[in-house]
Write a structure and sequence with these properties.
Elements (H helix, E strand, L loop, with lengths): L3 H11 L3 E10 L9 E4 L4 E2 L5 H17 L3 E8 L11 E9 L5 E5 L3 H10 L5 E5 L15 E3 L16 E4 L4 H13 L6 E3 L3 H13 L4 H4 L2 E2 L12 H18 L12 H18 L1
Parallel strand pairs: 6-7, 6-9, 7-8, 9-10, 10-11
Antiparallel strand pairs: 1-2, 1-5, 2-3, 4-5
Helix pairs in contact: 3-7
């Protein structure tokens, strides 16, 4: 059985939205003791508060918080007999801590030197990384388990698997293939970030070809080329990868909810939480 602590660490690493539910205090007969926890995501439940109606109502409330898409804390009291129809007859106070994240998926086209260097950085960021190259032998043998590799005959074939706001990084072994990927992204009116590796000369040539193909200047300018944060410098694969990874971080951070609007406990709830924690501490002494 997966423990809530392991699932919490994985959610925080990948940026998956989740609610941590904790038993803060109890009175009378209840399924679990104070300190018990479970973790709730949109489609999974990890660990347990003892089952029964208490856990079902806690799960339902946690999913409601997730559907609202806000980072909040809520303190809820559950009278087991009166409200939930359980024979235990006690009361349980639960703390719900909801962490909502924007889910980011990135498609990396090209398993060359920069692609290899970049994958080492991106695998530790809160991204769902899809790595695409039509040459299977180019992928490292020790590829991280959470990196999804694709090697279709035509890399443009994976566009039907993307979400409209996924991020794209294009850096294949072929300028012609890079162009076809850019053209496919604009043809499908892809709304996510599109970054293309290359020089200023390559950028000018691609913009000219894309405008000649009928795309508007605004559409063409959605492709960032050269992609990366200016001022870092260096031409080694890892130096280029660091610059590109920094730009990726800038982009996905700009999409995150405003942390300043985190809705914590009210003063009344905080006072109640402190009181119950103190009572629980005295009961265990």
């Amino acid at each position: 059985m997966i423990r809530w602590s392991d699932a919490l660490a994985e959610c925080q690493r990948t940026g998956q939205s989740h609610v941590l539910v904790s038993v803060i205090s109890t009175e009378g007969s209840v399924p679990r003791n104070p300190g018990s926890k479970m973790l709730v995501t949109e489609d999974t439940l990890i660990d347990t508060l003892g089952g029964g109606n208490l856990e079902w109502h806690a799960l339902e409330y946690a999913r409601q918080l997730l559907s609202e898409g806000k980072n909040v804390q809520r303190l809820q009291k559950f009278p087991l007999a009166a409200a939930l129809g359980q024979c235990c007859g006690g009361h349980a106070t639960l703390l719900f801590e909801c962490f909502c994240h924007v889910s980011h998926s990135l498609w990396l086209f090209g398993a060359g030197h920069v692609g290899h260097a970049l994958s080492k950085i991106l695998q530790d960021l809160p991204l769902r990384l899809n790595w695409v190259d039509n040459r299977p032998a180019q992928f490292p043998v020790d590829l991280a388990a959470d990196i999804i590799q694709h090697h279709p005959e035509a890399p443009t074939d994976v566009f039907n698997q993307m979400r409209p706001n996924d991020s794209l990084l294009i850096m294949t072994h072929s300028h012609d293939l890079d162009y076809r990927l850019c053209e496919a992204a604009l043809t499908q009116q892809h709304q996510g970030f599109i970054g293309l590796i290359g020089s200023d000369t390559k950028a000018a040539r691609f913009r000219h070809r894309l405008r000649h193909a009928g795309f508007s200047t605004d559409e063409v300018n959605r492709i960032e080329c050269p992609v990366g944060v200016t001022g870092i410098g260096g031409k080694r694969p890892m130096e280029v990868a660091v610059s590109i990874a920094a730009r990726v971080i800038q982009h996905y951070r700009s999409q995150l909810p405003d942390e300043s609007i985190h809705q914590g406990l009210s003063r009344t709830e905080q006072a109640e939480l402190n009181r119950q924690l103190q009572e629980t501490h005295h009961d265990t002494e």
